[in-house]
Amino acid sequence: MAFTEDKLKKVQEIIARYPDGKHKSALIPVLHLAQEEHGGWLSSETMDYVASLLKIEPIEVYEVATFYSMYNLKPVGRYLFEVCQTGPCMVNGSDQIIDYIKEKLGIGVGETTTDGLFTLKTVECLGACGYAPMMQLGKHYREHLTKEKVDQIIEECRSKATSLN
Amino acid sequence: MPTIYIDNKPYEVKAGKNLLETCLTLGLDLPYFCWHPALGSVGACRQCAITLFKDKEDTQGRIVMSCMEPVKEGACISVSNATAKAFRGQVIEWLMTNHPHDCPVCDEGGCCHLQDMTVMTGHNYRRYQYKKRTYLNQYLGPLLNHEMNRCIQCYRCVRFYKDYAGGEDLNVFAAHHHVYFGREKDGILQSPFSGNLVEVCPTGVFTDKTLKQHYTRKWDLTAAPSVCQHCSLGCNTTAGERYGKIRSITNRYNGAVNGYFLCDRGRFGYEFVNDENRITQPLIRNRVPEAVDEQSLMDHLKLLLTQSRTLIGIGSSRASVESNFALRQLVGSENFYQGVSLDEAALGKLIASILQSGAVHTPSLKEMEQADAVLVLGEDIWNTAPIMALSVRQAVMNSAAANALQQTSIAGWHDAAVRELVQDNKGFLANAGLTASPLDDISTCTLHATPHDIAVMGFAIAHAIHPGLPEVPQLNNELAAKAAQIAKALQQAKRPLIISGPSCYNEAMIKAAFDIAGALNTGERKAMLSYVLPACNSMTLAMMQAPSFEKSIDRINDNTVVIILEQDLYRSIPPAKANAFFNRCKNLIVLDSLHNGTTEKAQVLIPAATMAEADGTLINNEGRAQRYYQVFVPTTGMVKESWKWFWQMRSLQTSSGNGLELHPNDWLTKLEKTLPQFNGISRVSYPPEFRIHGQAIPREPHRYSGRTAMLANLAVSEPKPLQDNDSPLSFTMEGYPNRPPASLIPFFWAPGWNSIQSVNKYQQETGGALSGGDPGIRLLEQKTGTPTAYFTDIPEALPAPRNKWLLLPAYHIFGSDELSAYSAAIRELCPEPYIGLSTQDTAELGITDGKNITLVAEGEEYTYPLKIQEHLCNGIVLLPAGLPGMPALTWGSWATIAPSLKNNAV
Q1: B276-340+534-662: CATH topology
Q2: What is the pTM of this model?
Q3: Average pLDDT over residues B850-857
């Protein structure tokens, strides 16, 4: 794995935000960039590459990448459902929503559909308790989830995928 | 001293400490996990909760973490109130939700801090009914076993490994309930201090893999206070035995020496005691082994020793003071030599005379940790004295912390805050050596140079500090600049530390180190000077001024009887020279514990005890005499302490029948009378008849099991307990049940504290000296008013002979020490033999890395693969010193190099 010229420039910009000799501080944004570039997840090769860019040991990258749930360390589908399961969402029925998604897509938590389209992940509070139950899809929140809404979202994703293909 | 109230009782306590340390120092039982006296507080585990009250009227109070609260005048706290107790109980219950119930099969069981704390908080019923989180374990090398399921996330392992010891390959991954402590992938842990994880980990995540090979519970060990035999620092250890085998070595806290930590060579290098190569029966050449019993051996020795022949005794730097002195008494002082090369003996003598002069102070390891500027002059301490390197690291970190703390009110024990404040700042360390060292990573100033250059830089530093000392002529710019930088930093320090040693075989370096320390010793500034020595008891022989055995060769003829004590001369001088020596020895008596090249040459071979079967005293590099005690009595063979053999021989010589039995203390009293430089050494131990309330100190804990059954295959009646006439320790569990004097602690245990954390109960204050003072008698003290006799003979640069390389030893923590290399685990970590050259020299010779090359030294050829040493300077060839199977060489001599003809053809 290697970044394009463009992205490498971006990396340099990120590094330049921090004082000299503090390359390591750029790790989190660079990992995000790498994840975007690499199909939404971080392989150990990707992390080693990031380590080499920032001149740090691979183990220092693994340490950070494994800490945050926003970094995926296994391949994920094109659409990642991150369903909140913290208190307020749970009270409002996130369990049922999760079960429904599982049933509908035929996958468990942390698994990906065979067509590579969907991955289901449960996460902790996303700070949108007023709209519970909710999930994050890409850069957007999907709120007040019901079974119908889930159907709708899945349909939406499928058609988007077909049009992209 | 502030007064605080704990559960309404007033206590006078030390200011500047936190409440956890204070409670423990007062002897209260307060559970904790993440805090460690050497690592400080981070307040992560929430286990040491107490209730803190606003004032005496406050009845409510609030929960605080005692490790994070400083001592304040008049503070009212409660350790035992219901809220705090319930809180602590809850914390344990949470930790226990995931901790497996595998104590019966866990190596930590019986010496587990988590077990102790669980019992202490009273948690005894599991309410959590669900699945526990599980992990995959990693292969961490031959020393440590990894079992992550047991982890309670206290973070002590990474805080020790990374922060304290500077390791880089153990880390923490992930978050929440799936935190993982390990390496990035399976592999051998790289830090030579990794073994301390066994004791730092409060439960069984990291356990001793060598113990696993012959596992024994702590309560089933017969243990005795011991002293490490694997370098010159004399770290205190506890050796534990069962069924005639040493099972494990654990740290024995000594506040002045090793503190809480050991290096891996010291911890795992014990298996030479159990080795198959042990000599257990005396052998007489040309007689069948079965025909030699004690009587026939004595008859034979009597013949040898009494026919008015000259006796030559060769002492050993790895045998005790008692054995060496007993040999010296047997053969006479003028016939007593030591089994090291001429050069090594001369360097040892120089170091001893410098330290004996009393002009400078030689520090303990604890004092080294307080140094505010350090110069390492040419000694590869990472490999020759690993725990000293760890102390130097602490000095560098401590002085950076002390600087940072000057402007704040943060307490020094507040580890996370201090690290945040210090960032990457380091105290001053200048590391000058032949090639790269892990210490370079924390050095302000690094020099890789020839021994000569390092030495003259040393003289230049001394001159810069004290202009009255001679100037170094024609000093090159790099050295001059570094000398100026180092001199300035040392002068700004209050407690500068200079370290050197004989490992470069360079006399000038040792002299320069002394000159620097002497020059720094003015007014308020108290300089410290420490020399590393080659072996655990080199200091004794240096102080006895025993010449090298090479000097005895002309005195040996067919009528001379040569007695070699526990030393393999093939490790001291090249094989050809050693063979020449042995060819002259027609009557050779060798005492040793393991078969080696020297024992093969013996006419009479006598089985000597190792540290596990012997009482004896060692003098470490700071001149601290320390006693190690016999752990067990071997049941087979005729293994005996060498000093015991010698008094038996002495009684043959005097032909007055059996001479008076001498105990170690008697030898030391005699030694003091004979050689006044050893004055005080007889105080190193209590006399054998020492008793507390009429009781001896038991080597076995009171829970020792199977005593009446373990030998039932031999006889059903319990045999009479063995008597120890040489020390106040008993071989059984009977005896004084409480805390013994500091030098006689066979194992650390206190009611409710089965793990090594019980050392808290033996200290004057947590992290301080042991109650009654740290063990050891220092023989080399600075004498006030001693004039500093500077060395002014700055060596001239000698041009290297054409096409010749200076032959020098490269030391390896695993491999360079003779005895530890018998441990299979250590052997696995030994490097393969190699020849090391600089990059440029390699290029000029046109050879490639890994290819065999041949070194010719003194007419002998040695062929090994080439290993390019990136940071080595040109003109030096390095060979690993002391590796098993590698011959000794004349270090510091000139050698030639040729691409190997034999091998490249293959």
Answers
A1: Rossmann fold (3.40.50)
A2: 0.94
A3: 92
| Distance of alpha carbon B483 from alpha carbon A114, whole angstroms | 68
A67–B168 C-beta distance less than 8 A: no
* B269 pLDDT higher than 60: yes
- ipTM exceeding the 0.90 mark: no
Q: Is B360-513 assigned to CATH 1.10.287?
A: no
Decide if A66 touches B, using CB distance below 8 A.
yes
CA angle B410, B413, B415 (to 5 degrees): 85
Domain of A141, in residue numbers? 79-164
C-alpha to C-alpha distance for B103 and B495, rounded to whole angstroms: 48
Examine residue A154 and state whether it is found in any structural domain, yes or no.
yes
Our CA dihedral for B375, B378, B382, B384, rounded to 10 degrees, sits at: -130
- CA B525 to chain centroid, in Å, comes to 29
CA distance A122 to A110: 8
Q: Are A59 and B175 a contacting pair at CB < 8 A?
A: no
Residue B56 — very low, low, confident or very high, per pLDDT cuts 50/70/90?
confident
Q: Where are the alpha helices (DSSP H) in B433-529?
A: 451-465, 477-492, 507-520
* Structural contact between residues B5 and B77, judged by C-beta atoms closer than 8 angstroms: yes
pLDDT of residue B658: 56
- Structural tokens at position B334: 């003028």
- Best probe of the A interface among B153, B171, B441, by most A CBs < 10 A, is B171
Q: Hey, what are A17's tokens? A: 């935000």
Give the C-alpha distances (Å, rounded to integers) separating B24 from A122, B92, B643, B759, B784. Answer: 44, 19, 43, 11, 38
Task: Characterise B355 by phi-psi region: left (phi > 0), alpha (psi -120 to 50), beta (else).
Answer: alpha
Give the nearest partner residue to B169 out of A21, A59, A66, using CB atoms.
Answer: A59
The class (CATH top level) of B805-905 is mainly beta
Helix (H, G, I), strand (E, B) or coil at B639: coil
Residue A72 belongs to a domain = no
Specify the pLDDT at position A16: 94
**pLDDT-derived band at B870, boundaries 50, 70, 90:** very high
CATH number for A111? 3.40.30.10
Nearest-CA distance A148 → chain B (Å): 33
Whether residue A50 is contained in a domain is answered as: yes
Residues of B with CB below 8 A from A21's CB? 424
CA Rg value for chain A = 18
Scanning A55-146, the segments in alpha helix (DSSP H) are 58-67, 87-91, 94-105
Q: A87 and A126 share a domain?
A: yes
* Residue B90 pLDDT greater than 60, yes or no: yes
Q: Does the pLDDT at position B390 exceed 80? A: yes
Local confidence band at B901 (pLDDT 50, 70, 90 cut-offs): low
User: How confident is the model over B161-174, as pLDDT tens digits?
Assistant: 999 999 999 999 99
Per-residue tokens: B293:
């019993």
Residue B50 and residue B81 in contact, taking contact as beta carbons nearer than 8 Å: no
| Cβ burial, residue B370 (10 Å; 0-12/13-18/19+) | middle
Task: Answer yes or no: do A97 and A151 share one domain.
Answer: yes
Does residue A74 lie within any of the structural domains? no
By the 8 A CB rule, do A86 and A124 touch? yes
Sequence spans of domains, chain B: 3-96, 276-340+534-662, 360-513, 805-905
- Give backbone dihedrals phi and psi of B587, rounded to 5 degrees, phi first: -120, 95
Tell me if residue B797 falls in helix, strand or coil: coil
- Say whether both A83 and A63 belong to one domain: no
Cβ–Cβ below 8 Å for A58 and B174: no
Question: What's the confidence (pLDDT) of residue B905?
Answer: 41
Question: Is B180 part of the contact surface with chain A (CB cutoff 8 Å)?
Answer: yes
Q: Are the C-beta atoms of B177 and B120 separated by less than 8 Å?
A: no
Cis peptide before A133 (omega within 30 of 0): yes
Nearest Cα to Cα of residue B401 among B389, B390, B413: B413
User: Distance between CA atoms of B651 and B164, rounded to whole angstroms?
Assistant: 53
> How many domains does chain A contain in total?
2
